[in-house]
Each structure stands twice: as C-alpha cells, then as structure tokens.
Amino acid sequence: MAVQPSSSMETQAPGNYSPPKDGRSAQDQAIENWLPINASRNAKWWYSAFHNVTAMVGAGVLGLPYAMSELGWGAGVTVLVLSWIITLYTLWQMVEMHEMVPGRRFDRYHELGQYAFGEKLGLWIVVPQQLIVEVGVNIVYMVTGGNSLKKFHDTVCEDCKKIKLTYFIMIFASVHFVLSQLPNFNSISGVSLAAAVMSLSYSTIAWGASVDKGKVENVDYDLRATTTPGKVFGFLGALGTVAFAYAGHNVVLEIQATIPSTPEKPSKKPMWRGVVVAYIVVAVCYFPVSLVGYWAFGNTVDDDILITLSKPKWLIALANMMVVIHVIGSYQIYAMPVFDMIETVLVKRLRFPPGLTLRLIARTVYVAFTMFVAITFPFFDGLLSFFGGFAFAPTTYFLPCIMWLAIYKPKRFSLSWFTNWICIVLGVLLMVLAPIGGLRNIILKANTYKFYQ
After folding, report:
1. Closest CA to 211 of 283, 313, 297
2. 27: CB partners within 8 A, 6+ apart
3. Which residues, other chains included, contact 269 with Cβ-Cβ below 8 Å and sequence gap of 6+?
4. 8 Å CB contact between 59 and 384
5. N or C: which end of the chain has fewer CB within 10 A?
6. Which residues are 330's β-sheet partners?
7. Distance CA 91, CA 395 (A)
8. Which helix H or strand E contains 359, and what residues bound it?
9. Are 247 and 396 a contacting pair, CB within 8 Å?
C-alpha cells in the first residue's frame, strides 16, 4: 500500500529541504523541486486563507439564488447549511492527512489516494476525478469571465454595437496565456489575494443591491418549474449548483504543500487557521447572496444574480468587473495542479527537458483548450450543476471520508465512523442525482443554441 513520497518533510529551518531519503538521485530531486507544487515552501497561514477563498468563492456564489428558486426556502437553507458543515469537516480531514505519516508530506491529492488505496488504484480513483473538477472549473470560469465582460460592456455602453460572447471569452482567455507562465502557487499569491478581495466585494454588492432594490412586485417563492418533472430536474440541478460552490478541496493539499513544516511546527496548524478564516469569508459571501437574492426576486431570479440586477448601472458594471478579476485568480488556482500533472508526465514519463520552453508550450495549449470548450458550450447554469454533481461531490463530500476510514480505521459505530458514513451516503446521492438535472438543462439549451454565436 505504501508508495514513495514525492517530497520529504523539512527537518531543517522552515522552508528548507532535507536531502532525499527515498533513494532518488539529485537530478530527480531537482526535477521534483522544479515542479509547480514543490517549487516553493515559504507560504504563511494567510496565504492559505486567500488561496482557499479564491478557490472556493467564485462562479458558484452567483448561481446560489437561482438554486434557491429551484429548492425553495426549507430545502434551500438546509442544503446550504449542510454543505457548509460537511465540506468544512472533510476539509479538516484533508489538512490532518497531509502529514499523517512522520517524515512525509502528501503534497498532491492523488498521493494521498495512493497511500489510502494503493499506488495504481489510488491514481485511477483520484486523478480522473480531480482532472474533471479542475479542467471543468477552468472551462466554467472561461464562460463566467466572458459573460461578466459582456455584461460590463453592455452596461456601460448600451448603445454600442453588440459583440458576440465568443469574443469576450477570447479576451478573457488572453490574460491567462500570460498569467499561466507564472511558475508556482506562491508566484500567483498576489493575483489570488486580489481575487479573494474581489469575491468578498462583489458578493457584498450582489446582496446589498438586492436589499436596496427590495422585493419585486408580486414576488413568488413557489418553485421555478410548474410541472412535476421540471420541479424534480430543477431540484437535482440545484443540488449540483450548491456542490459546485464548495470546491476548494481539490487544491487544498497542493496549497498546504507551499507552507513550511517541521516536526515541531507542522503545516497543518497554519493551514487550518487559514481554512477557518476562509470558511468564515465563504459564509459571509454565500448565505447573504443566496437568501437575500431569493428574498428579493423569488423564482424570477436569473442563473447569475448580477444579470438580474440592472441598476444602478455603475455599481453593476463594477461588480461584473470584480467577477472578472476574481475568476482570473480562481482559474490560475485550479490550473496550477493541472500544470503540475502535465509537466510531471512530460518530464518524468516522456523525458522532456524541464524548462521555459516546455512550460510555454504545454500551458498555452491547455489554456487554448479550455477557451475552445468554453466557446463551444457556454451553458453557465447547466455547467455548474453538471460538474458540481458529477465531479465535485466525490472529491469534496465523500472521497476524503473514504480515505479517512481506510487510513485511520476508526472503531465501528464510533462518532467518527458514523459521521464519515453519513457524509459518504449524502455525497454518493449527490453525485448520482445532481448531474441529471444539469445534463437536462444543457440538452434543453443546446436545442436552441447556435454554436459560436
């Protein structure tokens, strides 16, 4: 079951590396240190805070009032609160498991999976799901960034010629062709901090403007759909939208890998401090936007709350530009582990020489790929619910619990055993049911959609 660690725990000064203890050559160690995840270990606890805020609060928060309109007050509030509690618990488990073995650090999600399930099985269980999440998020954020740019343009210049969404997605992508060349997590810390500030800002604008506008006339809190099948599919899709909003687990180990660690001062302490701060910010963003947005507009709210809000123009334009800045940072947070996987395969398996040329080509191709898919399938709400259920539920809601049970083996029928099995059951139900609603939404919109409009 045991696998060779990709990095040793530092036993010298924090941030320094001890000599390889697993039989690797100096060249192999140099390659390991060149890869994005292992390249820098001097992050502080507040890096964890804003990286996690940037990773979690994103496109999802803007779709939460729409999800409420498909769930209703009772189910909506219950799902939101349960998701916040469950994902905080599973995130705590992952922070704890990062250094559960003395002298080792599981710097990547799949390394933890290899330790829990075996070297080959762990890769097959974790890597496909993690890639679906991270690539899926990057595609959705391409759509989000393009939509927000378009809304900004249409708001500040109503009389201007209408420009296709395709071109706005391409403009948004052009930023990432440049930013994707930043080598590692710590190098994007400034971008991530700006993104975290923007997420709190536009969330505040979203619910503040809703309060200012007040309830729309004859507001209706009945479920959005009028037919029974529509209500069922809408409910399932809304579950996926909520799941999408809690997605930081897919990069949490990689974020923790940037924090220095010694036996006396393990990284889990500053990492957890940052996570707690991040989850407080998440609550401050998610709950007011969800509840106030639904309170103000009822079942007429759009899949993006900022689209529903049209006045005051300058404030809505500002909020949309904040969304653009935020998803720029979020895209980079989720892209970094993908870059690490791509570069690991190219350098270790295919024996390409590590360097600037490899990164320039590989990362440019990846950004171009996510841009192309986003331009082809810009179904924002359908993408949220589909990816949220299909991929986010396993990696966020129940895979950490399965790993915890496999590694720590808590006593049967103990509190830990019961808690983890409850999370597993709820997570599996979410994974099975939520994509159905999202896929139906995509199919319905695809029937009337003209490609590359």
Report:
1. 297
2. none
3. none
4. yes
5. C
6. none
7. 10
8. helix 356-376
9. yes
Which positions ≥6 away from 195 have C-beta within 8 Å?
50, 53, 54, 325, 326, 327, 328, 329, 330, 333
For the record, the structure tokens of 270 come out as: 């500053």
What the block records as the tokens of 153 is 């343009």
Q: What is the pLDDT of residue 371?
A: 94
16 phi-psi bin (left φ>0, alpha ψ -120 to 50, beta other):
beta
Other CB atoms within 10 A of residue 47 CB: 21
Which secondary-structure segment (H or E) carries 328? Answer: helix 313-344
234, 70 in Cβ contact below 8 A?
A: yes
Report the chain's terminal Cα–Cα distance, integer Å.
Answer: 51
Query: In angstroms, what is the C-alpha Rg of the chain?
Result: 22
Element counts in the chain: helices (H) and strands (E):
16, 0
Q: What share of the chain is helix, strand, coil (3-state, %, to 5)?
A: 75, 0, 25
- Residue 248 Cα to chain centre, angstroms: 5
The number of angstroms, rounded, from the C-alpha of 269 to the middle of its chain's C-alpha atoms is: 22
Query: 10 Å Cβ neighbour count for 288?
Result: 18
Among candidates 165, 142, 140, 139, which has minimal Cα distance to 152?
165
* pLDDT at residue number 272: 92
What tokens appear for 402 in the block?
């399965």
- Give the per-residue pLDDT at 8: 40
pLDDT at residue 212 in the model: 81
Closest CA to 441 of 371, 370, 378: 378
The answer to whether 98 and 267 have CB atoms below 8 angstroms apart is yes
Low-confidence ranges of the chain (pLDDT < 70): 1-25, 38-40, 58-59, 310-311, 379-389, 437-438, 441-442, 445-453
Q: How far apart are CA 233 and CA 437, in angstroms?
A: 5
